Amino acid sequence: MDNLIHIPGEEPFSENAIAYLDALAHILNKDPGAKNYPEVATFAFFCRKGNLLKLKKKWLSENSLRLGRGLVFHITPSNMPVTFAWSLVFGILSGNVNIVKVSSKKYAQADIICHAIYELSKEPEHQRFSARHVLVSYNAESSASTYFSSICDVRIIWGGNATIDEVRKNKLPPHSFDVTFADRYSLCVINADKFNDEKAPEQVASGFYNDTYLFDQNACSSPHLIVWLGADENVETAKRKFWKIVYDLAKARYNFQPHSAVDKLTTFYYQAVQSEGIKKADMPDNLIWRTELKAVSKDIDKYRCYGGYFSEYKASSLKELANVFSNKFQTLSYYGIEKEVLIRFITQLKPIGIDRIVPIGKTADFSLLHDGFNLIDTLSREIELI
Amino acid sequence: MSIAELPDIQPYSLKKAEKEKLLSSYLTSLSQHHYACCEPYRKMMDGIGFDPKKDYHSIDLMFLPVQLFGMIELCSVPKEEIIRTLTSSGTSGQARSLIYLDKETAANQTKVLTKIVSSFIGTKRTPMTILDSESVIKNRNHLSANAAAITGFSLFGSTRMFALNEQMEVNTELLNSFIEKHQSERILLVGFTFKVYRFYKELIKAGIKPDLSNAVLIHGGGWKKLENESVSSKEFNNKLKDVCGIRRVHNYYGMVEQTGSIYMECEYGHLHTSVFSDVIIRRANDFSPADAGEEGIIQVLSILPKSYPGHSLLTEDRGILLGEDDCPCGRFGKYLKVTGRLEQAEIRGCSDTYDGKIN
């Protein structure tokens, strides 16, 4: 491991990096097992040369002189199968050498990607580049994190807040810093007037299904609060239509876990005690739990559950929510709202929190901007040249 | 409504129609009482759609998940009337439940426990051995689930001794002299299932085989922990029989949130609801009542909780309703089997990067 310290950082989006990732994409595309996992396919699609060159143009200004910071130590989630691979790619594209802690939990998706990385390391033309990263796995008792922390230039910690606290007990060298992705809360704003006129409501609702149920509504970007805009009568119609489609999708595709029924009921009662005037909306069963709010409280992020529990609120405009947002808020997904309105909302009302505003169905997409960090800039250093 | 109004009926004497009528009226009035006296309960009921003026059938009454008692303070009497608090043993990862008892509820718990247990072992007080250490009941105002059970059963003891010392080893001499002294009498053994198993293992370790063939054992509560040691209840009984000759064993199902109205196991190994309590097995997907023979989540109903809103609770246990009014033992009421714990959900998400325990 020690020799990783002595490999210098490269310029972001280096030719070697792009060639390496493109080769990785090829291996993944050829893997018959990968077809069963959309997240692996999405990842491979991202790694293609064509896409990376586009990103290079978008994220790298031509005049800046940048090099990777050096050694990045990634601590990645144990309950998200492919996040480790994304974290590694961010480290590679920004020009760094990487140590990636991968969960010891077994996932087929992770196995496919790890296997591809291993295959690539045997190809002569990628051998040298392959030596720039190491995937590691160890249990909680190991002191490896202490060691890796002591030699890294940047440490990336993919949350839970408790994990961040735990990992931070390990000291970093003076010049190094943490990029942390703490627990976040996300919401979805839907314009009912537009939704009622939508030609393909199934597509919108299916995007919402992907945003939530694909990750048991437990990804940071999964919406928990649904805000409806529009005329009262439209909101009622839109709600009925929207939830009917989401329900049918969940009924057909979602693996309902019995314990979630108890947890949803518990969350609802807890929320009822702490807030004023909430009501349970009628649903056929426990697959989707909808809690209707009279007002959105500042601590709304406390009342969340996994597996399909939604707080719903009808707002007169986005403005009404500005005071509710805190730095806990990450993704605002939207339907039927003009971009200009969203820009004005940010520039005029300057909400605390909200790092991403994406169309409904796109909350789980990875980008080089994460939780407000431009990862290429954050993980590389800019050299001043006058 | 007070329990004194409940006619002096035997615990297993009512058939379905009569029992439902009685329970529905009791439980509805308890819901109304808590609605009026416990603000958090009122807010929960308003949210879920409870109508305080309606007469509910017990099957339609709202139920609170037990873990809420570890999250919110739930009490239906003024604080100064609380004479005792009970705490659950606390399953991993969950806050301990806090149960507030006033004089009336505590007294009714004792009354009902006595009725139920004496219908199995008679009313005569006999020498009692507690399969635990004395330290378990040190603080009488603040009792663990364990201690509450022991205190309750103590009413059946003419004299009592603790079989384990502070280090959880068998008090061999004390035990032997106790058995010798009460040779001609039936000894009552009580304890938490897990502690009883501990007692058994200690006997093996110490290599002693006390003669308890004349004893009757009542145990309950700790089977969750026993599951980890993978001991079935049959094995459990056989092991005890081998090492100390115990032949009469009654397991019971109960929880600190409904102390008193326990579900005793009959001679056929069935857990029985008494007239003071009921169970409804619910389907997880929509909380509808499951059919007999179908596994589901256990909801427990009890007419005892008046100082706190615990009369209708959704547990995290799985169970099967075996039948009603037709157990070969002759007792009326529903009887059930507890099949295990509801498994924690395996959830995906991005907020768990730590493989170990975080405390």
Question: How does this model look, in words?
Answer:
The complex is a heterodimer of chains A (386) and B (359). With 386 residues, chain A is α/β, with parallel strands linked by helices. Chain A folds into 2 domains: 2-182 and 371-382, Aldehyde Dehydrogenase, Chain A, domain 1, CATH 3.40.605; 185-359, Aldehyde Dehydrogenase, Chain A, domain 2 (3-Layer(aba) Sandwich). Chain A has helices at residues 15-30, 38-46, 49-59, 83-93, 108-121, 124-130, 144-151, 161-167, 192-197, 201-212, 232-253, 258-274, 339-349, 375-378; strands at 66-68, 71-75, 97-101, 133-136, 154-158, 177-181, 185-191, 223-229, 279-280, 289-292, 309-314, 329-335, 356-359, 369-370, 373-374, 380-382. Chain A has a 7-stranded mixed sheet with strand order 9-10-11-8-7-12-13, sandwiched between helices. In chain A, strands 4-3-2-5-6 form a 5-stranded parallel sheet, sandwiched between helices. In chain A, strand 5 (154-158), helix 8 and strand 6 (177-181) form a beta-alpha-beta unit. In chain A, helix 1 (15-30) packs antiparallel against helix 2 (38-46). The two termini of chain A are 37 Å apart. By secondary structure, chain B is an alpha/beta fold. Chain B has 2 domains: 3-64 and 266-341, Luciferase, domain 3, CATH 2.30.38; 109-253, Rossmann fold. In chain B, 28% of the residues lie in helices and 24% in strands. Chain B contains 8 helices and 15 strands. Chain B has helices at 16-37, 39-48, 103-121, 145-153, 172-181, 193-206, 223-228, 233-244; strands at residues 64-65, 82-87, 98-102, 126-130, 142-144, 157-162, 187-192, 215-220, 248-253, 263-265, 271-272, 277-282, 295-302, 312-324, 334-341. In chain B, the strands form 2 sheets. In chain B, strands 1, 4, 6, 7, 8, 9, 10, 11, 12, 13, 14 and 15 form a 12-stranded mixed sheet that branches. A 3-stranded mixed sheet of chain B has the order 3-2-5. In chain B, helix 6 (193-206) links the parallel strand 7 and strand 8. In chain B, helix 1 (16-37) packs across helix 2 and helix 6 (193-206) runs parallel beside helix 8. The model of chain B is unreliable at 353-359 (pLDDT under 50). Classes of the chains: A alpha/beta (386), B alpha/beta (359). The interface between A and B is large, with 58 and 37 residues.
